[in-house]
Amino acid sequence: MSKLGKKLFIIFLILVILSLLLVGIFINFSIGERFDNFINLQREENISELAEMIGENFNNNNFSRIRSLVENFSRTNRIPIWVEDSKGEFIYFPAQNNQMSNMMRRMGMNNESRMNHMNMMRQLPDDFPGQNKEKDIIVDGEKVLTLHWKEVSGENQLNSELYSYFKNNIYRAIIFSAFFVTILIIGLSFILSKKITSPLIKVKNAALAVAQGNYQQNIEGKGDDELAELIDAFNLMSRKLHKLEKIRKESTSDLAHELRTPLTTIKGYLEAIEDGKMEADQETIKEMQEESQRMTILIEKLNEFANAQNKIFNLTEEKVNLNTIIKKVIKQHHNFLNKKNIKLKLKLDANLYIKGDKDSLFQIFNNIIENAIKYNVVNGKIEVESSADQEKLTIAIRDSGVGISDKDLPYIFERFYRADKSRNSSNQGTGIGLAVVKELMDAHQGKIVVENEAGGTVFKLIFPAA
Length: 466
What we know:
Elements: H1 3-57, H2 64-77, E1 82-85, E2 90-92, H3 97-106, H4 111-118, E3 132-139, E4 142-150, H5 154-157, H6 161-211, H7 226-274, H8 282-310, E5 318-321, H9 322-332, H10 334-339, E6 343-347, E7 353-356, H11 358-374, E8 381-388, E9 392-399, H12 421-426, H13 433-443, E10 447-453, E11 456-464
Parallel strand pairs: 6-8
Antiparallel strand pairs: 1-2, 1-4, 3-4, 5-7, 8-9, 9-11, 10-11
Helix pairs in contact: 1-2, 1-6, 3-4, 6-7, 7-8, 8-13, 9-11, 11-13
């Protein structure tokens, strides 16, 4: 059994033992009261039956039959009975001496109480401890006799033989049940602990494998509880890590290629000039400048990404109108729009204020709009639309380009990831622009969502309301 399984097993066992102890304590404190209620209810039912028998055999001229019934009942049921006539005079008292003493002992009265009461003859119910109970006997609609007896009290029952017998049997039943339940819970706890920890052990082993670089991990999970959700989340993480590792390797290769290509070209030109095979004319110098510019752009993009990550910690916030920023970005790309004859449509509110870093916000919209132009078709369309509520402000940027495949959508914000390598190559893409946007949106506590629509793509930039 695993360490966690042992802990769960011990916890289950402790909880069961504590529960049994609490039940035992509750029963111990309540058993006396329950016993009293049971005995008194039984007494009352028996005396009601006696009252019916006396009523059936009542005769004013012959009390001996009634006396015989009361004496037999009192001896059989061990209940002292007093009989009161209709005039309020007691005409029958419980048997005296040893018989009365035995009855009082069975009621739980101590020796001193018994001796004190036995010193007097023909004692009334009020002379004895406990609550008085009475039952009227009705004959022909008139009360002819009243039976009196004493209710059993918890204080007097604590030392009685009947109570001790009852309590010992209850305790034996509790101990037997506790032993049986404990054995059962030990087995169930062992099985349950193993069932809970088994998938956790699989997750642990898979996590160790991921830590060692083996990202192709998949754990089979059953059910729909939190543990199954944890397994699903781990499997999703493992798949994404595997994909990101693949992206990282491909990106490293792509970055090396992007840097190597212009360097190789410049090196080739310089060697040719040095060997006298080529003249350092204006055309050659221009081509070397273009290759240098390619490297400069790539390095600048990398620098932009590093700066975007730092913005999370040193963002300069001020009240900014996004309307102004968007129009400024469009103005800078005016020539690019005209070159591809792209029609731009703005549906913006006049006041789109948020709290943010002006330069960072400019970079966000510049990268998105630049991509919307770069990857759009000739004679295409771009639409920028705003919407707002009390909690958020959304800017949607739609284009009529070729769109992004569904398999690429989850990864387009990863550094160096390029959904369409041939398209990016022809457009000098670096795979860094959207990663910069994602970092800057996170710095503004915002969110970016990308969706494919019929005839293009839409990027939704969601900012907290100012």
